[in-house]
């Protein structure tokens, strides 16, 4: 522990334990096992370090998880979805970077949570014929921008992405493969503004390197689990995950204002 403390953030057992829990849950999510786990990463780490430091620590690990996920889900990709979402995502990331100094993470989490819960309520009460949606450039651009912005500010890009993609009713493997490629590209774009804002230093990078083996194993575990789930189980599971995500984000946002 003394050696770890010299070069990393893991200066004591509680900090190391929190990092292990956060990375394991985020890895399961990046493998395809729902966005609720990913959103627990920063809050868990924030128990033992400042939130911005926690987000900076996770970004290099997210890039590694993305690389593994892209390999694990190779061959499963809907290019039309990326074509509609990525231009907006780039705009959203740019806005997030420019507004980083004045943007409240709590407000972003609250708004994303409300959107997520409203989306599930709409899907739950809509008639069957109204559930399926096709691709749309304007709709894709809007939700891509929201996903890019919330991903940059609070690592909470999952719900906006799901609002656009889940109504397309993809095969679970096609949905997950498209998701991992989209967020891999989003996270690569985020590296430049994160670095420009001074969020990376040697301690962040060494701490991330220590967690890389766990990140790899947990990501592969998530991919192995979700590849064995059929559509009748996958979609109810995903909607349940969105509800958990929405409740968690609303709770975090409201609690920050108390």
Explain what you see.
The chain is mainly alpha-helical and 258 residues long. The protein has one domain (2-257). The protein has 13 helices and no strands. The protein is globular.
Please provide a brief summary of the model.
The chain has helices at 2-7, 13-30, 35-38, 41-45, 51-72, 79-98, 105-125, 128-131, 137-154, 158-165, 172-196, 202-226, 231-257. The chain is mainly α and 258 residues long.
Quick one: biggest sheet? none
Specify the helix fraction band: over 70%
Radius of gyration: 18 Å
Average predicted local confidence, pLDDT: 82
Distance separating the two termini: 36 Å
Helix/strand order = HHHHHHHHHHHHH
- Give the total of beta strands: 0
Low-confidence segments: none
Beta-strand content estimate = under 5%
Q: Which structural class best describes the helix and strand composition?
A: mainly alpha
Shape, please?
Answer: globular
**Total domains:** 1
Number of helices: 13
């Amino acid at each position: 522990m003394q050696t770890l403390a010299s070069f990393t953030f893991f200066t004591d057992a509680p900090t190391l334990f929190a990092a292990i829990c956060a990375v394991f849950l985020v890895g399961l999510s990046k493998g395809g096992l729902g966005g609720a786990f990913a959103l627990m990463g920063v809050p868990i780490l924030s128990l033992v370090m400042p939130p911005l430091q926690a987000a900076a620590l996770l970004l290099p690990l997210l890039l590694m998880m993305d690389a593994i996920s892209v390999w694990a889900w190779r061959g499963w990709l809907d290019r039309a979805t990326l074509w509609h979402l990525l231009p907006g995502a780039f705009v959203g990331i740019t806005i997030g970077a420019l507004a980083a100094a004045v943007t409240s993470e709590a407000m972003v989490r609250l708004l994303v949570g409300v959107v997520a819960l409203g989306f599930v309520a709409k899907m739950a009460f809509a008639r069957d014929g109204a559930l399926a949606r096709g691709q749309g450039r304007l709709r894709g651009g809007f939700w891509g921008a929201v996903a890019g912005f919330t991903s940059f500010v609070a690592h909470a890009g999952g719900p906006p992405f799901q609002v656009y993609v889940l109504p397309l009713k993809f095969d679970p493997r096609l949905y997950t493969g498209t998701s991992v490629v989209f967020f891999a590209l989003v996270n690569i774009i985020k590296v430049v503004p994160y670095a420009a804002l001074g969020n990376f230093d040697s301690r962040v990078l060494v701490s991330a390197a220590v967690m890389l083996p766990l990140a790899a194993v947990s990501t592969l575990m998530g991919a192995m689990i979700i590849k064995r789930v059929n559509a009748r189980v996958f979609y109810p599971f995903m909607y349940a995950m969105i509800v958990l995500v929405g409740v968690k984000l609303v709770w975090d946002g409201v609690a920050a204002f108390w």
